[in-house]
Write a structure and sequence with these properties.
Number of helices: 3
Oligomer: single chain
Structural class: mainly alpha
Largest sheet: none
Helix content: over 70%
């Protein structure tokens, strides 16, 4: 994500201003994605790894807690996907430019 940010700034600042609406909105989306990775995805993936290890030793079937955490990961993954699509749309259309 840092490479995406650096490359995006390099490409955008050559011709555009940071104050342009589409650039500001895209940066906000990127910041939200950074926050999701740090606050949701990383802790949730660690939790799922622990649950999977626990479930593998106790019973090969997945526990209800594991399934619940998987659904949470899928929900936030879908949200992240929609944010990425919105950012790509903004960068392509350059609304307000």
């Amino acid at each position: 994500m840092v490479v995406v940010l650096a490359a995006g700034l390099y490409l955008a600042l050559d011709r555009w201003e940071l104050g342009d609406g589409w650039i500001s909105a895209t940066l906000v989306i990127l910041i939200v994605l950074f926050a999701l990775v740090g606050a949701v995805f990383t802790p949730l993936e660690k939790r799922l790894a622990l649950l999977a290890a626990r479930d593998a030793q106790a019973d090969p079937a997945r526990s209800a807690e594991y399934e619940q955490q998987t659904k949470k990961l899928a929900l936030f993954g879908s949200l992240a996907g929609l944010l990425i699509i919105a950012a790509i749309f903004l960068m392509t259309v350059k609304a307000g430019a």
